Each structure stands twice: as structure tokens, then as C-alpha cells.
Amino acid sequence: MHIVVCIKQVPDTKNVRIDPDTHTLVRQGVESIINPFDMFAVEGALKIKDENGARVTVLTMGPPQAAEALRDTLGLGADDAVLLSDRAFAGSDTWATSTTLAAAVRKMGDVDLVICGKQAVDGDTAQVGPEMAALLDVPFATFVKKIDVARSGSITVHRQTDEGTEVWKVQLPALVTVIKELGEPRVPSLRHKMRAKKAEIAVWGNSELGLDPNSTGLCGSFTQVVRVFSPQRRGSRVQLEGSIENQVEQLFQYLKKARVPGL
Ligand SMILES: Cc1cc2nc3c(=O)[nH]c(=O)nc-3n(C[C@H](O)[C@H](O)[C@H](O)COP(=O)(O)OP(=O)(O)OC[C@H]3O[C@@H](n4cnc5c(N)ncnc54)[C@H](O)[C@@H]3O)c2cc1C
Q1: For 256-263, what is the mean pLDDT?
Q2: I want to staple 117 with a disulfide (CB 3.0 to 4.6 A). Which of 38, 64, 145, 168 is the partner?
Q3: Alpha carbon distance 110, 44 (integer Å)
């Protein structure tokens, strides 16, 4: 079984700042981490590898320094890593990102399962997984917290929903997006870390993928960020203290003073 895990390097969220002029994230001097949901995706793939045997390839699209994130996952036990990096991919929206990632999965040829995180904690759209599945024309399941591999070319996934858990049988090849409950990421082992240090990371640009340049990067992006801003805080906040009864009384008086209709 060949599993591809898509990981994205994101700024450490505690440090997210927006450039007021360009409306883009300020990345300079900000530490990068692997998107936390993608760490659960890596763990899920490695669990399948431990229990059923599988080849795990980790894939990212990003600048050259994203290779370090890939190397970290090799240290956890992933077998191969591919970095998609090319000026032609710069400025990609989610569709152009998905187009590029899907082209890489197609180029690999023998992929049974693609695992993505539920969402990236910076872009937060949760679009890339489902878009890739549409482009690859494979079934997909989101919010997956458990994956069981059957022998019949299918997997059984447990999905977390607002109402509870749904259990789906999904025919392979397929794509899933995963949540925290899939499993706490393991710590790197010395053996894998040593291998990761020397491992060669494949770097593919558009000459390897052969995409129409109009479908990648800014040219292939149908959406445009018009404005990004931090919301202004409206009014001052009041924190209620004391016993519940006391807090209810305070809240009642506060709403009365604010002339809330009906009080
Ligand atoms: C017009 C426009 C221009 C943009 N320009 C830039 C830019 O110049 N530079 C920039 O950094 N961002 C840019 N972005 C943001 C970029 O579109 C998103 O970072 C990207 O498409 C992923 O979307 P997301 O973060 O919402 O991921 P989600 O859809 O929330 O991610 C879900 C999952 O998909 C996978 N995934 C997402 N992105 C990647 C990736 N790159 N590699 C591997 N797996 C991935 C991960 O498994 C992740 O958990 C731009 C966006 C727009 C709309």
C-alpha cells in the first residue's frame, strides 16, 4: 500500500501578524511548524505502516526551506519525501495548490491513499483535501478519527460529526482528511533521525509536473485576497466574578442597564 501524506509548513500561530500594506502574513522572523493536523495525518499513515505494512511518502508544496519539515517527518519513519517548489507555484490559492499537489500524486502513479489534515491553521479553509479528491476523481472522507485497512482494496473510516460517529467503507484509491483523535504524533527515533539526516529529498518543479503554467500559482488562482485584517474589539469586556447566583444577578443588572428589551 502506498500512502501519501500532505503536510503544510505554517507560521507558529502564536506569532501570526498581518502586513497592513500587502495584506499577507508576515513570515520574516517567524518560526515555522508543521501544521498540527498534518502531524496527526503522518501518525495515522505510520500506524498503518506499522500494522499492515505500507510505503509512506510525505508531500509538501512550499519554499525551499519547507524541506526541513519533510526531513522531520522522515525522522518519524516516513519512507520518502517530495517537495514541490517552483516560482511558478507562488501565489497559489487553494485551487492552484490542490491542482499542483494532485499532479504530484498522479505523477507518483501507484498511490492508494492520500491523507491530509482537516485544515491548515493559517489558511483555515479546509478546501485543499476535498479539492484534491475531486481533481484525482477519488472518493473522500473528512473529519476522520480512525482508519482500518481491509484486505479488499478498501478502508473503513470513523468520522466525527456533530451528532456522533459515522462509519464509512471507502473504496481505494481514496483521500481522507483527519483530526486530532487519529493519534498523538510519535517522537522521532534515533534510527530514523540518522537516516533522515542523509536522506535525499526530491524537489519537483513544474518541468517535472508538466502542468499548464496558466493552471499554477497566481495565474491558476480563481480567488484573490482583497483584504485581510484583525477585527477591531467592539466595546469593553466585563468579566463576572463570584458565585453563579451572584454572577446571574450581575448579568441581569448589566442587561437591564443596557436596556435590553424585555428586562
Ligand atoms: C490569491 C491567493 C494568493 C495566495 N498567495 C499565497 C502565497 O503567495 N503564499 C502562501 O504561502 N500562501 C498564499 N495563499 C494561501 C494559499 O492559498 C493557502 O495557503 C493554500 O492554498 C492552502 O489553503 P489552506 O491554508 O486554507 O489549507 P487547507 O485547505 O485548510 O489545508 C487542508 C490540508 O491540505 C493540505 N495542504 C494545504 N496546503 C498544502 C501545501 N502547500 N502543501 C501540502 N499540503 C497542503 C494539508 O494536509 C492541510 O492540512 C494565497 C491564497 C490566495 C487566495
Answers
A1: 78
A2: 38
A3: 19
| pTM exceeds cut of 0.85 | yes
| Number of structural domains the chain divides into | 1
Q: What is the spatial distance between Cα 250 and Cα 256, in angstroms, rounded to a whole number? A: 10
| Top-confidence residue, 122 or 22 | 122
- Residue 130 in any domain: the answer is yes
Q: Which of 21, 22, 19, 2 is nearest to 11 (CA)?
A: 19
Nearest-angstrom CA–CA distance, 194 and 50: 19
226 within some domain:
no
| Model confidence at 191: pLDDT above 70 | yes
Instruction: Pick the atom of ligand 1 nearest to 93's CA.
Output: 17
Q: Is the residue at 25 inside a domain?
A: yes
C-alpha distances in Å from residue 25, one per residue of 125, 128, 228? 15, 19, 9
What's the 34 CA to ligand 1 centre distance in angstroms? Answer: 13
Atom 19 of ligand 1 has which residue's CA nearest to it? 123
- Of all protein residues, whose CA lies closest to atom 20 belonging to ligand 1? 94
Q: Containing domain of residue 187, as a range? A: 2-215
- In this structure, of 8-12, 14-18, 54-58, 203-207, the range with the lowest mean pLDDT score is 14-18
Contacts of 172 (CB under 8 A, 6+ apart): 112, 113, 153, 154, 155
Q: Is ligand 1 within 6 A of the CB of residue 60?
A: yes
**Which of 26, 27, 128, 175 most suits a substitution to test ligand 1, by most atoms within 8 Å of the C-beta?**
128
Query: Residue 206: pLDDT above 90?
Result: yes
Answer yes or no: is 14 within a domain.
yes
Ligand 1, residue 132: give the atom nearest the CA: 34
| Mutational pocket test of ligand 1: of 97, 113, 118, 216, the residue with most ligand atoms within 8 Å of the beta carbon | 97
